[in-house]
Specification:
2 domains; single chain; about 270 residues; 7 strands; elongated
Length: about 270
Amino acid sequence: MNHPAELLRNLLGPGPLFELALLWIGCYFVLRFLRGSLGLGILRGVLIAAFTLFLVVQLVFERFAGALPRLELLLRPSLQILVPSAVILFQPELRRAFTRLGETQAFRRFAPGSASLGRILAEAAERMSRRRVGALIAIERATGLQTYMEGSVELDAELKAPLLESIFQPGGPLHDGAVLVRNGRIAAAGCLLPLSENPDIGAEYGTRHRAGVGVTEDTDALAVVVSEETGNISVAARGELKRVKSARELARLLDDALAAGEMRQAGGRG
């Protein structure tokens, strides 16, 4: 085994430093390109999973070197075939799993002023509920939602209940799209969110509810949905839809979720 001083000299040589600089520049531009998109959370998850798998394989083969020749003979070539196959076959599930894995507390950033965000959204949702105005609001957390802003109307406006109500005014050009809230501000309106294909969602729920669930299946976002037919208010998180009974409950639920990163149980489903 090499002496620690010799290893240190090898790492500090011109060649290794140049290689590290190239890797740093490459990582910087990749992270900058993925910033604000789903890919950043997925990349974090992939790196964590790949590093863990590498350590496990290395430790097993180092600990049992020569003792498991048949296992090593089968495992090493099989990984080269199974890994790409699994990525192709289970792409949606892996994407969600890696996104969840990348959502660690160290990377989580909370929006400034999030303590009052729930109250503002609850106030707007309650008013629209009384008037049977349909609405869909997605709240960005650690995973960026920049992907869903393509083709939308970017606003970067202060989050106000009257502004939300005007956006979802029936007959308006942005009424059927979703509003994206980022860092306590209205980032965009008229956003198109992915529809959930979960068969457990009841037939009584329409496109808005499926879009609210869909965006929370692939990200850690929260979604508030106001039904145009019934006026019911629901919250989607982690691919699940929960109905809330009052504006106070909605405000508490959202503020707690933004503060703790987890949804509390709020009554039954839907």
